[in-house]
Amino acid sequence: MDFWRATTLEEQIDTALGQQEADLVLKGGHVFNVFLKTWEEADVAISGNKIVGIGEYSGKQEVDVAGLYLTPGLMDAHVHFESSMLSPREMVKVLLLNGVTGAITDPHEITNVLGEEGFTFMLKETADMPFSAYLMVPSCVPATDMDTSGARIAAEDMERLRKLSPRVLGLAEMMNFPGILYKQRGEMDKLKLFYKQKIDGHAPGITAKQLNAYVASGITTEHECVTPAEAWEKVKRGMYVFLREGSAAHNLVDLLPLVKKPGNRRLCLCTDDRHADDLIEQGSINYLLEIGVAQGYAPEDLIPLATLNIAECYGLQQTGALAPGFVADIAVFENLQTFQPVHVVKGGALVVKNRKLLWKSEPVLHAPGQSMNMPAVTADSFRIPARPGKRLRVIGISQTQLLTAKLHLEPTVRNGEAVSDTERDILKMAVCERHHNTGNIGLGFGFGFGLKKGAIATTVGHDSHNLSVVGTNDEDMAVAVNRLREIGGGQVVVCDGEVKATVPLAIAGLMSDRDAVAVNAQIKQLDFWLRELGIPEEYSTFMILAFASLPVIPELRLTDRGLVDVVRFEHVDLWCE
User: Fold this and answer.
1) Quick one: which H or E segment has residue 428?
2) How far apart are CA 127 and CA 257, in angstroms?
3) What is the secondary structure of 270-309 as a DSSP string?
4) How far apart are CA 547 and CA 461, in angstroms?
5) How far is CA 81 from CA 122, 163, 530, in A?
6) Is the Cβ–Cβ distance between 293 and 303 less than 8 Å?
7) The dihedral of CA 478, 482, 485, 488: what is its sign?
8) How far is CA 359 from CA 47, 214, 350, 353, in A?
9) Which pLDDT value is given to residue 4?
10) What CA–CA distance (Å, rounded) separates 311 from 321?
11) 3-class secondary-structure state, position 432
């Protein structure tokens, strides 16, 4: 396949004038004008990688799209490829089948594990393929000093990374918003380094003068809004607000009313973190469009949020529209309800034809080395002696939001130890450091996981990606942790001392080196055993567990160094009055 075949300016002008045949013509479809939010029945003529004409044209290759709906190729405003558990190239295959031809990616997951090696791996793996993968330099490696990451990236390292490729657009989400408001030197150095480039935000809940200060620092995007009021205030202050629908964070429906407001040019769609099974079975950004239409919003109002708005947000010239001079990234849909593309054009080449992917690639081209460096554990590693007269600080889990609650609950005590209580859904948790062989293990409890027996564990643990485990008993927790240590990372379900299912993640303990079909089958086996262990089908348990260790989203989190009160931004004891 000839992706991004260059043609001269003279050829493009001659083709636009109809004086020579186009390379590719999509004939007779309903063409969406993203500027006017209207439809026009016309041909789309392509010369090389550019659209050169909308009207009536003939071409060397013609595809009949009569009755079909043509939109710009969809984009994702903010996504972590690693969260899919697919390698970048396998992820792209799934995205193309869903009409997504570009994304703004933040590889801070693998960079927190492998440092610069992780960033350059993602840059290499996303090169030379029919997809526009733009990278943001991770700003928070580590996210905070409240846990132990695999690497540290300082401002001087970022200076090197931002020069590696034109596809590196700026600084990724600045999660340490207290560090910005308190003018910490390290955070100031990062902001000053990228002041002429795009800087992404991550500041849930800030408002009023704190919001003014945050935006004044140069940050212009936000994807953590949970209420229309919060989102609208940020739009009023000049930010682009991303309406997010991931596997764990479901904010889209709540924020959709903003689409009806006059500031909707500052709205974009993003998935942030989405598992492979959800991508394969539901879709990506196209699924968000489906949700919006099902909620009663006009597709004409939603499509700009997945195309031109994102291109304008990130300064991507000649991208995000079906118009002469724009890059020929096109999704062709049968209808405007399901948004499952029939054809996809990327850079002027058909990459999906009649719902079949034409692009072939090995899953991984440049695999990094193994990333597990931790000692084995025993059941004794998770023992918590009870403290008479004391209550537990417990992480209150939400199955629809990344926010947690800070609960103070009576412990269940057996043989002088605080233990899991399945009747009350209070389960023991642990986070084991896996990068530097420190032996650190943070211990705590979570409410709301729904597990009735056994244990589950994962090496996907935002953002430092230590090994997180939750279980009904210490013995199964130990088996789960040791199994992931043996296989180089991944996800596992254990019951009665037996490993029931695993998803091995050989790439940094985050992504599989297998193809998407194989990974999806492994996830299905994992999901089956989650149901067998009592977890309701609608729960995104592994995604929730992965975020339980992220000490930048309120209120309470668990890291390898213990409990963190995110509101107070300090470690707190497991026990309280």
Assistant:
1) strand 426-432
2) 37
3) E-BS--HHHHHHT-SHHHHHHHHHHTT--HHHHGGGGTHH
4) 6
5) 9, 21, 24
6) no
7) negative
8) 20, 42, 9, 10
9) 54
10) 9
11) strand
Location of structure tokens 């999660």: 175
Give me the pLDDT at residue 177, please.
84
| C-alpha–C-alpha distance, residues 407 and 98, integer Å | 41
d(CA 407, CA 410): 10
Tokens encoding 496:
């009665």
What would the two tokens of residue 436 be? 């530097």
Task: Give the separation between CA 310 and CA 360, rounded to whole angstroms.
Answer: 28
Which phi and psi (to 5°) does residue 71 adopt? -125, 165
| Residue segments in the chain with a per-residue pLDDT below the cut of 70 | 1-5
Mention every residue, 6+ apart, whose C-beta is less than 8 A from residue 99.
71, 73, 74, 285, 286, 331, 333, 339, 340, 341, 344
CATH code of 73-320, in short, is 3.20.20.140
The answer to whether residues 440 and 561 touch, using CB atoms and an 8 Å cutoff, is yes
Do 543 and 279 touch, CB atoms closer than 8 A?
A: no
Q: Which residue has the tokens 């009663």?
A: 296
- Whether 91 and 80 have beta carbons less than 8 Å apart is answered as no
Which residues pair with residue 76 across a beta bridge?
A: 103
* CA pair distance 296, 307, nearest whole angstrom: 20
Give the DSSP H or E segment for 116.
helix 116-125
3-state secondary structure 60-109: EEEEECCCCEEEECEEEEEECHHHHCCCHHHHHHHHHHCCEEEEEECCHH
- φ and ψ at 203, to 5 degrees? -145, 75
Q: Which of 295, 280, 299 is nearest to 339 (CA)?
A: 299
CB neighbours (10 Å) of residue 168? Answer: 18
Report d(CA 465, CA 463) in Å as an integer.
Answer: 5
The C-alpha atoms of residue 534 and residue 422 are separated, in whole angstroms, by 10
DSSP 8-state assignment for residue 147? S
> Concatenated DSSP letters for 369-385?
----------GGGG--B
- Span 29-84, pLDDT tens digits: 999 999 999 999 999 999 999 999 999 999 999 999 999 999 999 999 999 999 99
Helices 516-532 and 88-97, packing angle to 10 deg: 90
Nearest CA to 259 out of 221, 298, 315 is that of 298
Q: What is the dihedral of CA 65, 69, 75, 79, to 10 degrees?
A: -100
pLDDT at 2: 46
Distance of CA 404 to the CA centre of its chain: 19
Domain ranges in the chain are 73-320, 379-576
